[in-house]
Amino acid sequence: MRTVRVYTKPQCAQCTMTKTLLGAHGIPFIEEDATEPGNLAAIKELGFLAAPVVTAGDSLDDMWAGFQPDRIKEIAERFNKLEEK
Q1: pLDDT, tens digit (0-9, with 9 covering 90-100), for 3-56
Q2: Cα 52 to the chain's mean position, in Å?
Q3: Cβ atoms 45, 52 nearer than 8 A
Q4: Spatial distance between the Cα atoms of 31 and 38, rounded to a whole number of angstroms
Q5: By C-alpha distance, which of 49, 84, 80, 81 is closest to 65?
Q6: What predicted TM-score, i.e. pTM, was given to this entire model?
Q7: Within 13 Å, how many C-alpha atoms sit on residue 13's CB side?
Q8: CA angle 16, 20, 23 (to 5 degrees)
Q9: Euclidean distance between the first and the last CA atom of the chain, given in angstroms as a whole number
Q10: 62 with 1: CB under 8 angstroms?
């Protein structure tokens, strides 16, 4: 599995919930500051305007914005399958 990155903003409830749920599922992730100019430009280039932005692969199907527990569950299932191999 590709590295999961979570682009967050300070004092963002959805960001906190996303990080908490990723951790609860045992999904390792790297947190990036969405307010840093380079990160902000990259997020906008992908078409996202809200935080958090989660990237879990190279395709847009593996990227999303906002707190999406169903998407996190999908990533957890894929992560667990890779761990079993």
Answers
A1: 899 999 999 999 999 999 999 999 999 999 999 999 999 999 999 999 999 999
A2: 7
A3: no
A4: 14
A5: 49
A6: 0.89
A7: 0
A8: 140
A9: 12
A10: no
| 34/42 Cα distance (integer angstroms) | 9
Give Rg (Cα) of the chain. 12
Token pair in block for residue 58? 């190279």
Q: Which two tokens stand for residue 52?
A: 């958090």
Pull the structure tokens for residue 16: 């906190």
Rounded distance, CA 38 to CA 25, Å?
A: 29
Residue ranges and CATH numbers for the domains of the chain are 4-84 (3.40.30.10)
Q: Which two tokens stand for residue 49?
A: 């305007």
**Six token digits for residue 70:** 């169903």
